[in-house]
Design goal:
It is a single chain. By secondary structure, the chain is α/β, with parallel strands linked by helices. The protein has one domain: 2-enoyl-CoA Hydratase, Chain A, domain 1 (Alpha-Beta Complex). It has 10 helices and 10 strands. The strands form 2 sheets. The chain has a 7-stranded mixed beta sheet, sandwiched between helices. Strands 6-8-9 form a 3-stranded mixed beta sheet. The radius of gyration is 18 Å and the shape is globular. The protein binds ligand LRBWVUCK. Ligand LRBWVUCK binds next to helix 2 and helix 10.
């Protein structure tokens, strides 16, 4: 039987309580009825993963873990974007120490989410390229709203997604589909993602997506939580072991790749493209 350890800062009078969060870049809301925690990313406009957002996501995941919530749902406060991936400004003409910290924290976030024993689900209420897809695929279940895109488009920026980053993708997609998608920088539409199995369900709104995620987490209510957790970790242990073996070298590889003049040029052009796209919309 689930019995949450309470760390609430708010008296438990209503059906929901909020946990403390390191800053305002994420919020954590726990449904007292279900014991499920919802972690919401709140860095407008697109939840670009800068150092501060990554640190905040990590500490919110740890907080949820320590609270022994019954499950974790990750979503976004942004109306159209779940998460646009790494903040490209962190990679363009970067401060070297900060860039190192950004990559280390992206690793930490992945490791915390991928390796957490409680059930996890992503309510993908908008686009989820690159680092956004990374968060979603670290979870056990994904529900996405219509007309959005999800995928690992790193090659478009001239960077190579390392093995640990791809491992969530490979848990879900056949190797052949994953290889083609990565080499093509393919962003799947919601319908394509469902067809390929990259997401599990489509929902018509964020609220419905969160409900469907909660229903998925609810399917474990009659399963022994320790047996469930050990079974999940058994499936993920090899990827995590490999990651820990390679993580330091991976930081060096990332830094040396991002600092290459041709990659910097590509990132600069990509940023310009984003700005132009916006100007054309206006
Ligand atoms: C070893 C390497 C492994 C790498 C692992 C991870 C790498 C990454 O995560 S790289 C990041 C890759 N991300 C992307 O390619 C996404 C780029 N963004 C988009 O495609 C669109 O913005 C998106 C579909 C997410 C949303 O589209 P819209 O709703 O139409 O918004 P806009 O495009 O108008 O964007 C609004 C605003 O946000 C800025 N923006 C968007 N994405 C990013 C980002 N990733 N980093 C920083 N800034 C971003 C965009 O430029 C606009 O800015 P302003 O013009 O200043 O308003």
């Amino acid at each position: 039987m689930f019995s949450p350890r309470v760390v609430s800062l708010v008296p438990r009078t209503g059906p929901r309580r909020f946990m403390s969060t390191a800053s305002k870049l994420t919020t954590v809301e726990v449904n007292d009825k279900t014991g499920i925690a919802t972690l919401t990313m709140c860095r407008p406009p697109v939840n670009g993963q800068n150092l501060e957002l990554l640190l905040d996501i990590k500490s919110s995941i740890k907080e949820i873990e320590n609270d022994s919530s019954r499950g974790l749902i990750i979503t976004s406060a942004s109306p159209k974007v779940f998460c646009a991936g790494l903040d490209i400004l962190e990679m363009h003409k970067p401060d070297q120490q900060r860039l190192r910290a950004v990559w280390t924290e992206l690793q930490n976030v992945w490791c915390a989410l991928y390796g957490i024993s409680m059930p996890t689900a992503a309510a993908i209420n908008g686009h989820a390229p690159a680092g956004g897809c990374l968060l979603a695929t670290a979870c056990e279940y994904r529900v996405m709203v219509p007309d959005c895109r999800i995928g690992l488009n790193e090659t478009q920026l001239g960077i190579i997604a390392p093995k640990w980053l791809v491992s969530g993708f490979l848990n879900i997609l056949p190797k052949r589909v994953a290889e083609r998608a990565l080499t093509q920088s393919r962003l799947f539409t919601t319908d394509e993602a469902l067809q390929e199995g990259l997401i599990d369900e489509i929902a018509n709104s964020k609220e419905e997506a969160v409900e469907k995620c909660a229903a998925f987490i609810g399917t474990f209510s009659k399963v022994n939580p320790v047996a469930r957790a050990l079974t999940k970790l058994q499936f993920r242990a090899e990827n995590l072991r490999q990651f820990h073996k390679e993580r330091e070298q991976d930081v060096e590889n990332f830094l040396s790749l991002v600092n290459r003049p041709e990659v910097q040029k590509g990132i600069g052009a990509y940023l310009e493209g984003l700005k132009k796209k916006k100007a054309n919309k206006q």
